[in-house]
Amino acid sequence: MRPRALTTAALLVAALTAPAVLGPAGPTAHAAPAPATPYDFNGDGYTDLAIGAPDATVAGQAQAGAVSVVPGGPTGPKTSSRTLITQNTTAIPGTAEAGDAFGAALASADLNADGYADLLIGAPGEDIPGDSGNGTAVIVWGSASGPSGARTLFHFSDREADRYGQALATGDFDDDGDLDVAAGSTGTIVLSVVNGPLTKTGAHNGGGGSSHDWWSTTTGVTHLTSADTAGDGRGPVVLHGRTAHNGAAATALADLRIGNFTDWLQGMPTGFVSAAGDIDHDGHTDFAVGNDRETSADPGGAKGGKVSVVYGGPEGLDPGRAPLVLTQDTAGVPGAAETGDRFGSGVALGDVDGDGYADLAVGAAGENSGAGSVTVLYGSASGLTTRGAESFTQNTTGVPGTSENGDLFGTRLALADRTGDARADLTVSAPGENAGDGSVWFLRGTTSGLTTTGGLSLGPATAGVSTSGTPRLGTSLGG
Fold it and tell me: In the chain, which end has fewer C-beta atoms inside a 10 angstrom radius, N or C?
């Protein structure tokens, strides 16, 4: 059974064929090689960390943006080996300019199937001649020595879309064996799919994109989540945007394999961010959707914010299981729902304790006057449970630093195995730390859950980012 068509206006998509010089629109299907783990840029078996600071000043250019890549290792991120990437870095296309917002969005996959994960970086504020704020994205190639060399991501509709690259995701969206890239934008084209394979040189393989605004949103696609929990690059993608009439969240699951573009969307609980993982270990992708707004600002929100857990099935979402709605008033969830907590500002799914079930981390960036907090809930055969739930702030013993108003601890989260022990470690960002300098924290996963023993914090100096202005390190996280 194909996904049910929505009764609201769906995104109408027209397949676009690249000019002849760029090669055919669709490559011949073939068996995909074993993919490298996303964000393992040097192929050493450890997941690396990419930290975006899109407001960073570069060579005097305010909000040009930067990305710091920190390799993983047996004890966690190896800060002594980090690599700073800007548009002034050798071999990176373009030039750092004010307002480019390089690093606003991040994604990773082994796009050229060479055994090293590659890094996608969005710069939605980039201008092109005659078109201000058109946006761009670049692919930074992985290698044995880490990130090395780059190429601009193909943009077939550069006069039809603005803020291209404000959202990025990877996956084999057309199920032909090659990894593709999805890019969100505003304008006439709000979602673009660039067909794989993507290579360091040579012709592009075309792509397609939307021809009308999705669900009448004028802000376009603002966040994307690939549903690739198996690690093979296959799966649908979650689309996030904002409705035109009141700016409320709009969210849907899109199966990009469907060619008629009528039956390809499934409705989901609305939110601004999401994460994908197999919470109950049944082989189907589950989703956590965060909506950190109050109902006065968004009808789909809740007092203090909420997270909706949607269970997956063979055809996308499981129609037989109602979404699980979590707030800080849910029994077993630490804390209490208070106006402005922003519970759901960040969400991440990963197996913290190594039991085979994906666990959920939820940020509440507005907690305690914007100091922020993170809650961790654990997966089980019956789904997500609140038993053994944990809460972390900068005042938690072992977590570096001190909770302060406006830190926004929990704005963005990542769960990934950075130490090679088959357990997911937690990365937390607080872009408001130190009056907008921003910072990132690392807590290691163990068989009994997260531990603060050996916890690390990475500020702008460690990441190599200038503190001129307000770089807001950790505005985006990858890995």
Answer: N
